[in-house]
UniProtKB/TrEMBL annotation:
<dbReference type="InterPro" id="IPR000873">
    <property type="entry name" value="AMP-dep_synth/lig_dom"/>
</dbReference>
<dbReference type="InterPro" id="IPR045851">
    <property type="entry name" value="AMP-bd_C_sf"/>
</dbReference>
<dbReference type="InterPro" id="IPR025110">
    <property type="entry name" value="AMP-bd_C"/>
</dbReference>
<dbReference type="Pfam" id="PF00501">
    <property type="entry name" value="AMP-binding"/>
</dbReference>
<keyword id="KW-0443">Lipid metabolism</keyword>
<feature type="domain" description="AMP-binding enzyme C-terminal">
    <location>
        <begin position="467"/>
        <end position="577"/>
    </location>
</feature>
<dbReference type="InterPro" id="IPR042099">
    <property type="entry name" value="ANL_N_sf"/>
</dbReference>
<protein>
    <submittedName>
        <fullName>Fatty-acid-CoA ligase FadD</fullName>
    </submittedName>
</protein>
<keyword id="KW-0276">Fatty acid metabolism</keyword>
<dbReference type="GO" id="GO:0070566">
    <property type="term" value="F:adenylyltransferase activity"/>
</dbReference>
<dbReference type="GO" id="GO:0016874">
    <property type="term" value="F:ligase activity"/>
</dbReference>
<dbReference type="InterPro" id="IPR040097">
    <property type="entry name" value="FAAL/FAAC"/>
</dbReference>
<dbReference type="GO" id="GO:0006633">
    <property type="term" value="P:fatty acid biosynthetic process"/>
</dbReference>
<dbReference type="GO" id="GO:0005886">
    <property type="term" value="C:plasma membrane"/>
</dbReference>
<comment type="similarity">
    <text>Belongs to the ATP-dependent AMP-binding enzyme family.</text>
</comment>
<keyword id="KW-0436">Ligase</keyword>
<dbReference type="Pfam" id="PF23024">
    <property type="entry name" value="AMP-dom_DIP2-like"/>
</dbReference>
Length: 581
């Protein structure tokens, strides 16, 4: 049975009864007082950003005030949705909901482009009693809610008057802390129910795994606070470990990625995280003049996760910033998902992530075999070992334990695995708590929907079950196809999405991508070249190649390509109507 865990589990401190992110805020406020807890780098006026800060004491007082106001309008267990942009106010709103005993629902302001449908669906699903926002966003939030199916009380967290000191009830560690909505289809977002025990366990696992220490480590993040990784890195780990949180808006990063690296340089002992695309984006967009202001030798951990980690990206990023003091061992490739709070596994500290070149044909057939010199090959980056959980590989059809070296579904068991999906009993049973059950706790295994293999004791993620392109009975990993087409100079880097559609003759493969900027290439000729390259490299005939203008391929709110949205937009004709050529 392919099950892995660390010989000495990286767990951090155990979760005691009555603990939560909000109670730990009180602990750090008493211990760290006037030291900075949260810094928000506001770049809305351009430039290097205006730093808005809160000390631990100020944050605790503001959270107390918000909790007091919430206790007037909502009861324990009712939902409090956060509809705000990236800011210190978002941190106050989220922690205020927890302190008041409500179930927080971290969402986003209604002005986030392209995500109004998802926001409306999430609100309808969770039925919030109260919505938390800021005074600047109140009008937009109120207008949006007027057209929705919910009618909550709206509270502006920066307009709440101070409240007197009071004793708050200790939270039940097994009560829901918040609902983490997954970034799936806008038609049916699912809220993962995460308890105080789940999220605090995972935040402590992250602090221990990444080498975070109170007083010397800063968590620097541009990831949205409503995403699982952004929430734990930006709020959870700082509350668990007494770390300073340095936040910036995702748009500020996308406008000028050097801003992220400047923030890392200004934060001794920094840890941070980003999807794979962001590292390649930095390497290609940060100028030589901007590098003169970077000092990256004190960075502790740079986590690469939430999408496949590409060896070429690691090399490109390190080559670009080695001259700024970046050490190769700070790269930490990671695997996680919202259903497990976020973090499941990470590569070991102190050395670069391991890379293994596998036989591509055998891997597609379900077996991880190192490639011979003359074989077609795929190089995968290890996602390390679990950080206080167990990981097993299961047969995709039967769920039985996979054989050594066999690709199967990744399943996870541990204290950070959530309770299920909000209001979705059937889906919860199908995903959470699968056998074999732990005889002591009764806990089962989480079916992640991701494919992977254990090789030499480390986890390698090969793809997602639902993203596999299966044509003529053969499996193809979409990231392999995307990597091949993005080698063509007419294709904009990190813009391709490969997926399968149904047809009269079975499944067919489609690639949607963006034309590179400042290119005069003929898209018809380029499409023919891409068909030939994919045929030669993968033995796959592409049904369609759709070239779009730069910025047209659907992405998630954190900037990743969304294959699911690409597929839906292709099938309903929205993408093909905008094709070039």
């Amino acid at each position: 049975m392919e099950t892995i865990s660390r010989p000495v589990p990286v767990t951090g401190a155990p979760v005691d009864g009555g603990e939560s992110f909000a109670t730990l805020l009180g602990h750090w406020a008493r211990r760290l007082g006037d030291r900075i807890a949260v810094t928000h780098l506001d770049h809305r006026d351009g430039g290097d950003g205006r730093a808005v800060t809160l000390t631990w004491r100020e944050l605790d007082e503001r959270v107390d005030a918000v909790a007091a106001r919430l206790s007037e309008v909502a009861g324990p267990g009712e939902r409090a949705a956060v509809l705000a942009g990236q800011s210190a106010g978002y941190v106050v709103a989220f922690l205020g909901a927890l302190r008041a005993g409500l179930v927080a629902v971290p969402l986003f302001a209604p002005d986030l482009p392209g995500h109004a449908g998802r926001l409306a669906a999430a609100l309808a699903d969770c039925g919030p009693r109260v919505v938390l926002t800021t005074a600047a966003e109140d009008e937009a939030v109120t207008r949006f809610l007027a057209g929705s199916t919910v009618d909550p009380v709206v509270v502006d967290v920066d307009a709440v008057p101070p409240a007197g000191a009071r004793q708050w009830p200790e939270p039940d560690p097994d009560a829901p802390a918040y609902l983490q909505y997954t970034s799936g289809s806008t038609r049916s977002p699912a809220g993962v129910v995460l308890t105080h025990r789940n999220v605090l366990a995972n935040a402590r696992q992250a602090c221990a795994a990444y080498g975070a220490e109170s007083g010397t480590t800063s968590a620097v993040s541009w990831l949205p606070l409503f995403h699982d990784m952004g929430l734990i890195l930006g709020i959870g780990a700082p509350m668990a470990g007494g770390l300073e949180s340095v936040l910036m808006d995702p748009l500020a990063f996308l406008e000028r990625p050097a801003r992220w690296l400047r923030a890392l340089s200004a934060s001794p002992g920094a840890i941070s995280a980003a999807p794979n695309f962001a590292y390649a984006y930095c390497a290609s967009r940060v100028t030589e003049d901007e590098k003169l202001y970077l000092e990256l030798s004190r960075v502790v951990s740079l986590i690469n996760g939430s999408e496949p980690v590409l060896p070429a990206t690691i090399a490109k990023f390190h080559d670009a910033f080695a001259g700024c003091g970046l050490r190769p061992e700070v790269h930490r490739s990671s695997y996680g998902l919202a259903e497990a709070t976020v973090l499941v596994s990470v590569t070991d500290a102190g050395k670069p992530p391991r890379q293994v070149t596998f036989d591509r044909t055998r891997l597609a057939a379900g077996y991880a075999v190192p490639a011979a010199a003359d074989a077609s090959a795929t190089t995968l980056v290890s996602c390390g070992r679990p950080v206080g959980q167990r990981v097993r590989i299961a047969d995709q059809v039967t769920g039985a334990p996979a054989e050594p070296g066999e690709v199967g579904e990744i399943r996870v068991s541990g204290p950070n695995v959530g309770r299920g999906y909000w209001g979705r009993t059937e889906a919860s049973v199908a995903t959470f708590g699968l056998p074999p059950l732990d005889p002591d706790t009764g806990a089962g295994w989480l079916a992640t929907g991701d494919l992977g293999v254990v090789f030499d004791g480390e986890l390698f993620v090969t793809g997602r079950l639902k993203d596999l392109v299966v044509v003529d009975g053969r499996n193809h990993y979409p990231q392999d196809i995307e990597q091949t087409v993005e080698e063509h100079p007419a294709v904009r880097p990190h813009s391709a999405a490969a997926f399968a559609i149904g047809g009269d003759d079975g499944e067919a493969a489609v690639v949607v991508l963006e034309r590179a900027k400042d290119t005069e290439a003929d898209v018809t000729e380029a499409a023919a070249a891409l068909r030939a390259a994919v045929s030669a490299g993968h033995g796959l005939r592409l049904h369609d190649v759709v070239f779009l203008a730069p910025g047209e391929v659907p992405r998630t709110s954190s900037g990743k390509i969304s294959r699911a949205r690409c597929r839906m937009s292709y099938l309903d004709g929205a993408l093909t109507a905008r094709r070039l050529g």
